[in-house]
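hey so i finaly got around to running the thing on Glyoxalase from Leucobacter coleopterorum. pasting the sequence first so u can double check i didnt mess up the copy paste, my clipboard has been acting weird all day
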Amino acid sequence: MDTQIFVNVTTTDLDRSKAFYTALGCEINPLFTDENAACIVWNEHIYFMVLTREHFGGFTDKTLVDPRASAQVILAMSRESREDVDGILAAGIAAGGSEPREPSDYGFMYSRTMEDPDGNILEFLYMDPVASEQGPAVWESQLP
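ok and heres what it spat out for the 3d tokens, dont ask me to read them lol
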């Protein structure tokens, strides 16, 4: 079995979160979804568990941060192209997300940051295949 990743984030409105993530092209796994949590399926290896704050609090003794006021993680995911990055941002903004900063274009890598309606930070990026495999210096050495 390949390693899978289950990222847990909080929400104050589970139905709103489900609508937001399905607008990004994700699916909801009903087997692991109830009134406390939704299993958001990105692909066969990446899942988000969107949990109500109360339910999330049952998994830790630490104080929960408000993702609108504090950042704990940035969840970055690659896309197939710059257009895919722009497309998922457009879908997310139309579904209630926001873009808190300008896009970053490093030549070999293009990224955009989005916050979901609860303030959880998602970053979507496209990296040139040469830079991804051999590093940005190799990519830059091939420039005219």
